[in-house]
Amino acid sequence: MRLPLFGEHGFLSSSVGRKQFVAATGLCLILFVVVHLAGNLLLFAGPDVFNAYAHKLASLRPALFVVEAGLLVIFVSHLAVTVLLVVENSKARGKTRYDVQRSQGERSLATRLMPWTGGIILAFVIWHLLDFTFTDPDGPRGVMPNAVHRGLYGVVFNSFLNPLNSLFYIVAMVAVGLHLSHGVQSFVQTFGFSGLAPSPKLKVACQGFGLLVGLVYSCIPIYVMVVNIITFKSGTPGP
Ligand code: HEM
After folding, report:
1. Does residue 133's CB lie within 6 angstroms of at least one atom of ligand 1?
2. Model confidence at 92, in pLDDT bands (50, 70, 90)?
3. Alpha-carbon span 138 to 155, nearest angstrom
């Protein structure tokens, strides 16, 4: 069976097809980021609720493996086709150097930073998986500062007790927010939804969305550091 994506007449053979592929895979990743954020907010409800959620997710295996494999394929292909587009664009830029230099100033900060925010997200995801996914929640990393074992909640809590690690997370969350704000705009433009033509209002809505996602994610490491100071450090029993 031949995949309709590849080959001479495949979807990815044209630059429009490649742009649409990047936009569609980007949208899947944005949906994951939003759903993942909703799950992570359960951290604020305490260890029992958060761990119950983690156990519920784990109980969905082996079906969850299929979702994870799909996510990996989407992530890697989004990255690979984006790199292809960037290389193509920079080649085209060489030919029309002056036009592009003029348009640089008109591109927003989020747009210009796309390769950088994308790179930070890639490094972050690798670090993040090693930190939270490829670790044993029942091992020593789950032990809280009050010596109580709190499973995955404890792993996340202990990870954010390191200020440098929390700082890296916050920088990565800012990168995620910036990347999303341009990504959503780009998705709408690429698929040219009627009624959602590029407009200042759409731009503000996308920037607001990116800012909100970045801010809410960043609240998690900040919350852990604050809880650590007002409970464990002052001798009060913590979560
Ligand atoms: C403060 C922010 C975040 C926290 C506290 C957090 C927490 C977690 C935890 C606890 C897990 C392990 C889940 C489990 O094994 O049951 C996980 C997995 C994961 N996280 Fe995050 N996360 C954060 C931000 C992000 C962001 C911004 C992304 C994407 C850009 C992301 C991508 C992933 C991925 C891909 C997995 C693996 C999913 C899986 O194996 O099913 N995370 N995260």
Report:
1. yes
2. confident
3. 9
Paired with 149 in beta bridges are 143
The finding on whether 67 has its CB within 6 A of some atom of ligand 1 is no
> What are 197-231's pLDDT values in tens digits?
667 888 899 999 999 999 999 999 999 999 998 88
Both tokens assigned to 8: 């001479």
Q: Is the pLDDT of residue 72 over 60?
A: yes
Check pocket membership of 220 for ligand 1, CB cut-off 6 A: yes
Ligand 1 centroid to Cα of residue 99, in Å, is 41
Measured distance CA(75)–CA(14) in Å, rounded: 21
Q: Output the CA 36–ligand 1 centroid distance in Å.
A: 7
Q: What digits encode the pLDDT tens for the residues 110-160?
A: 888 999 999 999 999 999 999 999 999 999 999 999 899 999 999 999 999
Rounded Cα–Cα distance for residues 229 and 232 (Å)? 6
| pTM across the whole model | 0.91
Percent of the chain residues past pLDDT 90, beyond the cut: 67
The DSSP code sequence of 145-158 is: TTS-B-HHHHHHHH
Single-letter amino acid, residue 78: H
59 Cα–ligand 1 center, Å: 17
> How many angstroms separate the alpha carbon of residue 128 from the centre of ligand 1?
7
State mean pLDDT over 179-205: 83
For the domain spanning 13-234, the CATH number is: 1.20.1300.10
Nearest CA to ligand 1 atom 19: 129
**Binning pLDDT at 50, 70 and 90, where does residue 102 land?**
very low
Domain ranges for the chain, please list them.
13-234
